[in-house]
Amino acid sequence: MIVPRATEKAYVAQTQNTYIFFVPKAASKQAIAKAISEAFKVTVIDVRTAVRKGKPTRFSRGKHAYPGTTFRQDHKVAYITVKEGDKIPVFEETKADDKKSDAKDTKEEKVEKKAAKKAEKAEKKVAKAETKAKKEEK
Questions:
Q1: What is the CA radius of gyration of the chain?
Q2: Using 50, 70 and 90 to split pLDDT, how confident is the model at 129?
Q3: What is the DSSP letter of 86?
Q4: pLDDT (tens digit, 9 = 90+) per residue, 55-79?
Q5: 15-41 residues labelled b (16+ CB within 10 A) or e (exposed)
């Protein structure tokens, strides 16, 4: 189970064709490279791994007992470098980018709607002026 890691560090690393994934602790570098190349149809050049030790967390043993300390699970992280020109689509488009582009589109649409409303109002004023002039002529 290889899970992409969507953090600022991961997005900066992708500019150097390096992608960051959480991987199972028992996975070897060869197994990780094979799984990534098959899943995303890319050529893997390098795999670097690091095991991040779990942080200590405190927990309660009851109302009158001292709290205890346990540790969160360790995580293995793989830094995968792919061939120049290959891309992993998981990191390419994010919902935040889509929302920003949608927001820009909606701003442009709002401006267009305002302009259309102003044009309609101007046309109505002209039509009213024409009908008044016709009534006064009669």
A1: 30
A2: confident
A3: -
A4: 999 988 888 888 889 999 999 999 9
A5: eebbbbbebeeebeeeebbebbbeebe
Which amino acid is it at 96?
A
Q: Cα separation of 83 and 100, whole Å?
A: 30
Domain ranges, ordered by start, for the chain? 3-91, 94-138
Q: If DSSP codes are grouped into helix, strand and coil, which group holds residue 119?
A: helix
3-91 in CATH: which number?
Answer: 3.30.70.330
Would you call 90 exposed, middle or buried from its count of C-beta atoms within 10 A (0-12, 13-18, 19+)? middle
Please name which of 75, 72, 73 lies closest in space to residue 24, comparing C-alpha atoms: 75
Q: Count CA atoms closer than 13 A to 28's CA, side-chain side.
A: 3
Report how far apart, in Å, the C-alpha atoms of 79 and of each of 30, 118, 120 are.
Answer: 13, 56, 59
Q: Where are the alpha helices (DSSP H) in 2-94?
A: 8-13, 29-40
